[in-house]
Structure to design on (377 residues):
């Protein structure tokens, strides 16, 4: 999409040039303006409103272009502010951002709606140009009416019989000031009206070119995401496919696209399940190594207990005869305490290992059941 920057620059340059020209001709324009200040002020006011409206028409294209570029960039999130000119398009394709595909009928409907909105926005600018011309002609006829009425009054009041010619010419000169004022009103209003319509016409031309460029870029992009119907490619003289068959084919194509997306999601889920099963296998292998270590430790403890039994029996026999001192008894008690603690640790470790093994088996069962459900769907 092309931003309307160059059209905006042209409008600004043209407006600056007109302002410089008016500044250079300020004195004659000021005298022409003061011949009928209310009417000429109205013409200038309409001109200013028309200039503001044309600039607004061009500036309104910036958020529309930004929304389209944001929509085309699938990685960027959509902004919350919905477009105004592209409101029907945002409603129709807003939820199909990653899989946008339009039929020729839908594309033509979108373009027709946007074109009608553009034409509607141009009507006000065209009316403003016509209004300036109308106000200029209105001032012209108003001034001519004043001129004709003033000339009639001068002629009716002019009398040369038995009067001094100097006084007659002085009265005629004073009487012609009113017709001259009327002519000034006529020509000044025509000047401001036609000049304003000329300036506003150039700005309207640039605004229309910017909107047409936006419309053409939008049409090119929508054409790239539009699929042609089968009936649109028939040769001349051949009958196209009936409308209900075409609609059925389009619905079938959409169903196939949905099926393809479902298969893609199922494949992603299957890959995720395989990754979870591999991770679970690694965990089970680690648990098996821990169990082997625990079994080896328990075997070592059992061998140690077997080796200690004769020694304990001798110690017990010696203690019955009273030949063991206090240090030996303390050592035997410490050894008994350590053996008891080691036995308790082995039991608790075995229970923790069994609980972990049960939880991992439950997780594996849920994963396999979920994978079975996805494959079934």
């Amino acid at each position: 999409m092309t931003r309307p920057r160059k059209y905006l620059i042209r409008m600004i340059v043209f407006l600056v040039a007109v302002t410089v020209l008016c500044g250079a001709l300020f004195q004659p324009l000021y005298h022409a303006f003061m011949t009928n200040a209310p009417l000429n002020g109205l013409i200038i006011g309409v001109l200013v409103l028309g200039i503001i409206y044309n600039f607004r028409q061009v500036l309104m294209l910036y958020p529309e272009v930004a929304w389209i570029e944001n929509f085309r960039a699938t990685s960027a999130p959509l902004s919350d502010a919905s477009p105004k000119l592209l409101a029907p398009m945002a409603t129709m394709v807003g939820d199909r951002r990653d899989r946008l595909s339009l039929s020729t009928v839908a594309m033509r409907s979108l373009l027709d709606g946007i074109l009608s909105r553009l034409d509607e926005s141009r009507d006000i600018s065209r009316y403003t140009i016509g209004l300036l011309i109308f106000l200029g002609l209105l001032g012209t006829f108003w001034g001519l009416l004043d001129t004709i009425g003033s000339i009639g009054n001068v002629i009716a009041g002019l009398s040369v019989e038995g009067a001094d010619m100097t006084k007659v010419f002085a009265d005629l000169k004073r009487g012609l000031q009113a017709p001259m004022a009327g002519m000034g009103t006529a020509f000044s209003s025509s000047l401001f009206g036609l000049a304003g319509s000329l300036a506003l016409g150039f700005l309207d031309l640039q605004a229309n070119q910017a909107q047409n460029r936006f419309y053409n870029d939008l049409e090119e992009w929508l054409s790239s995401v539009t699929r042609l119907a089968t009936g649109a490619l028939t040769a001349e003289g051949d009958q196209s496919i009936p409308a209900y068959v075409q609609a059925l084919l389009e619905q079938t194509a959409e169903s196939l696209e949905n099926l393809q997306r479902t298969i893609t999601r199922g494949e992603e889920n299957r890959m995720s399940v395989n990754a979870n099963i591999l991770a679970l296998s690694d965990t089970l292998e680690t648990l098996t190594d821990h169990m082997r270590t625990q079994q080896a430790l328990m075997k070592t403890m059992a061998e140690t207990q077997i080796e200690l039994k004769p020694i304990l029996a001798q110690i017990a026999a010696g203690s019955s005869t009273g030949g063991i001192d206090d240090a030996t008894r303390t050592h035997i008690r410490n050894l008994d305490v350590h053996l008891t603690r080691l036995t308790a640790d082995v039991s608790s470790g075995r229970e923790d290992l069994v609980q972990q093994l049960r939880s991992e088996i439950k997780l594996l069962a849920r994963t396999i059941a979920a994978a079975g459900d996805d494959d079934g769907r």
Summary: The chain has two domains: 5-231, 268-376.
